[in-house]
Amino acid sequence: MPRWKAFFSQYLRWSSTVTQALVLCIITFCIVLPLCCHQLLYSYFFIRTMYLDSMSEDVLQESLNRGQDALHFWQSASTAVSSSSRLSDIARHPELLVTVVTARRNEGRDFHYLLQVMRQLSSIVGGCGERRCAEVLVCDVESGPQENQDAKLLEAHFRVVRRSPEEQQANRERINTFEREKRDYVFCLRKGWELVKPKNVVVLEDDALPRQDFFTVIKDLLSRRFAFQTLYIKLYHPERLQRYWNPEPYRILEWVGLGLVGATALLLTFPYWNPCSFSFTLSAGHLLFFTLYFMAAAELLGRHYLLEVRRLSPQFYAVSPATECCTPAMLYPGNTSLRVAEYLDGSFCVKGNAKDMVLYHMARMIPGERSHSVEPNLITHIGAYSSVRGNPFRPKLL
């Protein structure tokens, strides 16, 4: 018999584990996952040319509708809400202060991002029992000739702080966008501390929409030992950057661990349940194959979707070393907001070295400082239109 026939007869019959592994990979990676994941935005199988435009338009329309609803809500609330239920009276030394940094948007004004965020905060801030989950402060950093109308509308319901006319005039010097954004952020950090001296601070940008479990998870984070040994905790990282195939070392460990657990569980199951008559055993070679199999499946599916399982309980949220990008939602335990303000003041921000990069490098370079991220995200970033950078005509999700 020719050698090639002997090879095929030996390895390509169904009883061969090589054949079984090959068929399993073809069915999984060429049929099942493409069919299941072609509409999942953060999967490798997502078909951009077919779905990206329509999905982007749907998300924009949803945000626009939510913004218009929020506008009508706050306009009607101006007369309907009693003074006893307003959040404009801020108690001193609260357990948590949420500062929302906002500026007027030249584009995307009809989306009313700030009003969306404040409506969500107003609905969840009372979910902690007799006392509010946090005090809420709006920090309006608009320094142009036109007012931030959304912040103006909220003055009847929330404490809104701004720079004095003299400070606004001084802040109008010609500086780059990234440095201006940093100075605005520092102003809001210090203003919140000066007003109420909170025990902990959360800073949200005005397009960071909190999720329903926002305060529940923050309360759990602050109860963990690491919280008061860290400079900051990031509450958001872009979904497109959450993949396993990433420079972050801890994700590689998580990825390998997921593969090993999945492979071990499957191989231990085969002796008791094996409808396809697989010949795999708990050997080193088969364990390695299934470890790589589960790792590949998890990466191609999208780590973002696996992280969503952690929302079952606040205790399931993962804490890891902080990543570089970005700062829409940040938790500063204790008085670290003051240290952060000092660190930022000592740096000049430019393109490629914005405030998120400055903080990331400070936490890595300064002895004794640490920084962390929480996953999955505690906010949804709804800001398709930026207030400080150029915008495309119709923003896309990717």
Automatic annotation (TrEMBL):
Name the species this protein comes from.
Seriola lalandi dorsalis
Record field: transmembrane: 20-47, 252-273, 279-301
- Superkingdom classification of source: Eukaryota
CDD domains recorded: PGAP4 (cd22190)
Query: Which GO BP terms sit in this record?
Result: GPI anchor biosynthetic process
Q: Does the keyword Membrane apply?
A: yes
What's the protein name? Post-GPI attachment to proteins GalNAc transferase 4
Alphabetically list the UniProt keywords: Membrane, Transmembrane, Transmembrane helix
A GO cellular component annotated for this chain's UniProt record is: Golgi membrane
PANTHER family in UniProt: POST-GPI ATTACHMENT TO PROTEINS FACTOR 4, TRANSMEMBRANE PROTEIN 246
What one GO molecular function would you report for this record? glycosyltransferase activity
